[in-house]
Write a structure and sequence with these properties.
Number of strands: 5
Strand order of the largest sheet: 1-5-4-3-2
Distance between the termini: 43 Å
Helix content: 25-40%
Protein name: DUF2116 family Zn-ribbon domain-containing protein
Organism: Flavobacterium aquariorum
Structural class: alpha+beta
Length: 115
Amino acid sequence: MKTCLECGDPIVGREDKKFCSDGCRNAYNNKINKDSTNYMRNINNKLRKNYRILSELNVDGKSKTTRAKLMSKGFDFEFFTNVLNTKTGNTYYFLYDQGYMVLDNDYYMLVKKDI
């Protein structure tokens, strides 16, 4: 007889079942997926905040904004997920599928990758 991965109770039902209830499944997955340290949690929160800001300012997939506007919303330029250097020499900083490129006079081009 199989037992629940979370609580150890016997499992009734399908042969491939791993948990006795939705509550145990949720508790198990929350434990597995939680940030292991405060440092990780803080970085993930900053990445999420930056992503929300870019998404809010870039609803059409391509737009322009100023550094002051980004900073007023709390954008932190030190946190991004990857950098894309194009053949033309442009550098884009991305937060998942939302990105930005530095322009002249404290302007930024906001872009969104098609995924």
